[in-house]
Structure formats: C-alpha cells, structure tokens
Amino acid sequence: MHVNGKVALVTGGAQGIGRAFAQALLGKGAKVSPGRGPLPSPPPPARLAPPAGTRGRGVAAARRARLGGGAGPPAVCPAVLPSVRPALILPSLPPCLPAQVALLDRNSEAGQESKAALAEQFEAQRTLFIQCDVTDQEQLKGAFKKVIEHFGRLDIVVNNAGVNNEKDWESTIQINLTSVIRGTYLGLEYMGKGNGGNGGVIINISSLAGLMPAAFQPVYCATKHGVIGFTRSIALAANIENYGVRLNTICPGFVNTPILQSIDKEENMGQYYSYKDEIKNMMQFYGVME
Ligand SMILES: NC(=O)c1ccc[n+]([C@@H]2O[C@H](COP(=O)([O-])OP(=O)(O)OC[C@H]3O[C@@H](n4cnc5c(N)ncnc54)[C@H](O)[C@@H]3O)[C@@H](O)[C@H]2O)c1
Ligand SMILES: CCCCC/C=C\C=C\[C@H](O)C/C=C\C/C=C\CCCC(=O)O
C-alpha cells in the first residue's frame, strides 16, 4: 500500500509498537517532485467494476490489474520516475505528498519525546502529538477531531494502545478492547464513504494471545481474542455496506517493548505474579522480536 499524502492516527504512539508504526509510515511517501504541479484527481475507485479474474480481491488488486502490474505498489512514487506509460499511470495515482502522523497517548512526556525524535528524522510538521487517554470517550473523540482539523483529512487509524494488567483487569478491558471498538467506530464515522468520508484503513492490534490461550494472562488474552472477533465482524459489515474502509488486525508474538516489563511487577500480574518465570520461559521458547 502506498501512503503518499495519507494522514494516520496511531493510539499508544508514544513508544513501542505504536511509535514504530509512526516511524514506518513517516519513512514512506515521497515529496512532490520539483517542477511538477499536482496530478489530476483519481477517479472514484470503489465504483469501478473489477476486471475479470480480480473479483473479490479489492480495489487495489483491480487497479494493479488494470495497470498491468501484479507485484504490489511501486516502491518509489511514479511521479518522480521517468514514466514509460504516463497516460496509464499518472491519472490513477494521487499526488506524491509525504505521509503525516498523529501520535495519541496518555503519556505526555514519552509522547513529546517521540514527537521531537521523529521531527529530527522527518520534517517537524509531519507529526503531531495529542495527549489522550483512549478510555475517555470525550478525549478520544476530541483527538480525532483535532487530527482532521490539523491535517485536513484522515486515512489510516491504528488502534494500538494497550496494557498488560491482570490485577486491574477491568481497566485492561477498557483500554485493550472497549477503546479499540470506540476507535474503530470513530474511524468509520470519519472515513466511511456512507458518512461522506473518502474511505481508508483501520488496523487493530491484537496479539498471538488473541489466537491461543495464555494461562497466566487470562484477561489480556480475552481482550485480544475480542479484538480479533470484533475486527473480523466489523470488516464483514464494512464490506457489505461498502464503507470503503479496509479493517485488519495484527497478531504479533513477543516484541521487545516496555510492556514486557509488566511481567516483573506485582501491580500488573496480581495473583499470577509467582508465574513470571514460566512466562519468561515462554518468551524464550517463542523468541522476542525487535
Ligand atoms: N510487545 C509485545 O510483545 C506485544 C505483542 C503483541 C501485541 N502487543 C500489543 O501491541 C500494542 C502496543 O504495545 P507495546 O508493546 O508497544 O507496549 P508499550 O507499553 O510499549 O506501549 C503501549 C503504549 O500505549 C499507551 N497507552 C496505554 N494505555 C493508554 C490509554 N489508556 N490511553 C492512551 N494511551 C495508552 C502507553 O502509554 C504506551 O505508550 C498493545 O496493544 C499490545 O497489547 C504487544
Ligand atoms: C503470556 C502473555 C504474557 C504477557 C506479557 C506481556 C505482554 C505481552 C503481550 C504480547 O501480546 C504477548 C504475545 C504473545 C503471547 C502469546 C501466547 C502465550 C501463550 C503461549 C503458550 O502457552 O504456549
């Protein structure tokens, strides 16, 4: 997927996987090539019938097939390449603008630090940090509004904020599941074609623990199973209703981020604290990604 000119909102973006998402998005997308004006707007893709043999594989597949390519999006924006088929390629792609990312997080200090680090690596105006507790309905709604007011659009929502807390398990459900559902509905409200949006992508972060039982993390595990069930179901509804929004869930195994430190804390593990070594053994068995 190309992300040129897209605006993404990432919850829990101050550190860990959320920050890595932001960095990856910012690393993609090229600048407008000098000397070229904006390209013509693309035709509304959802209304086009897919070419024979591509039915059911989505608008992107249909567009690739029309362009004669099957290997996915170009790594570099075609507007900066000496195009051999300008008539075919140029009208169907948006202008090459860099992607922009809003980081939402309740941790203001880490959020400001990440914003500053990303601003050093990429242009400062491409990132925005908004302090927001995703469990606070009004704060979350307000943050979505702010992102659209600031960047003028919204194309990608990553519902990533999450915790591992078996002791305060009610808050784990609020953060890991309820807020993901709320973030998804807000994404559909702003991006859904039926609501006047332009379509987009919603990524909900689950876990390997959403696909299998985890003895010492029953509530964490339940929330991650819930994210998968919710996302798969709402993706079906989005398809039936032609929202133009693709929904996916990602299920990583162990990743080396601060959440793993929760295993060593009684205030997170509660009654399962004495099993921390078993969990560490699991981590060794499955491996930990960077
Ligand atoms: N690290 C792993 O091994 C792993 C594996 C699979 C899935 N995940 C999931 O990936 C997501 C990101 O986790 P991570 O590993 O980067 O953890 P992390 O602790 O490094 O980052 C989580 C971020 O979410 C933020 N956050 C927590 N509660 C919040 C709230 N109420 N409002 C706003 N922000 C809040 C935190 O401040 C933090 O910046 C989580 O949903 C986690 O369950 C992590
Ligand atoms: C077992 C969960 C440990 C919790 C550690 C803290 C946060 C990590 C969150 C990750 O989402 C966990 C990722 C993968 C764990 C998945 C399954 C573990 C169960 C495996 C087993 O019993 O063999």
UniProtKB/TrEMBL annotation:
<dbReference type="GO" id="GO:0016404">
    <property type="term" value="F:15-hydroxyprostaglandin dehydrogenase (NAD+) activity"/>
</dbReference>
<dbReference type="InterPro" id="IPR020904">
    <property type="entry name" value="Sc_DH/Rdtase_CS"/>
</dbReference>
<dbReference type="Pfam" id="PF00106">
    <property type="entry name" value="adh_short"/>
</dbReference>
<dbReference type="InterPro" id="IPR036291">
    <property type="entry name" value="NAD(P)-bd_dom_sf"/>
</dbReference>
<dbReference type="GO" id="GO:0005737">
    <property type="term" value="C:cytoplasm"/>
</dbReference>
<dbReference type="GO" id="GO:0047034">
    <property type="term" value="F:15-hydroxyicosatetraenoate dehydrogenase activity"/>
</dbReference>
<comment type="function">
    <text>Catalyzes the NAD-dependent dehydrogenation (oxidation) of a broad array of hydroxylated polyunsaturated fatty acids (mainly eicosanoids and docosanoids, including prostaglandins, lipoxins and resolvins), yielding their corresponding keto (oxo) metabolites. Decreases the levels of the pro-proliferative prostaglandins such as prostaglandin E2 (whose activity is increased in cancer because of an increase in the expression of cyclooxygenase 2) and generates oxo-fatty acid products that can profoundly influence cell function by abrogating pro-inflammatory cytokine expression.</text>
</comment>
<keyword id="KW-0644">Prostaglandin metabolism</keyword>
<keyword id="KW-0276">Fatty acid metabolism</keyword>
<dbReference type="InterPro" id="IPR002347">
    <property type="entry name" value="SDR_fam"/>
</dbReference>
<keyword id="KW-0560">Oxidoreductase</keyword>
<keyword id="KW-0443">Lipid metabolism</keyword>
<feature type="region of interest" description="Disordered">
    <location>
        <begin position="31"/>
        <end position="54"/>
    </location>
</feature>
<feature type="compositionally biased region" description="Pro residues">
    <location>
        <begin position="37"/>
        <end position="48"/>
    </location>
</feature>
<dbReference type="GO" id="GO:0006693">
    <property type="term" value="P:prostaglandin metabolic process"/>
</dbReference>
<comment type="similarity">
    <text>Belongs to the short-chain dehydrogenases/reductases (SDR) family.</text>
</comment>
<protein>
    <recommendedName>
        <fullName>15-hydroxyprostaglandin dehydrogenase [NAD(+)]</fullName>
        <ecNumber>1.1.1.141</ecNumber>
        <ecNumber>1.1.1.232</ecNumber>
    </recommendedName>
</protein>
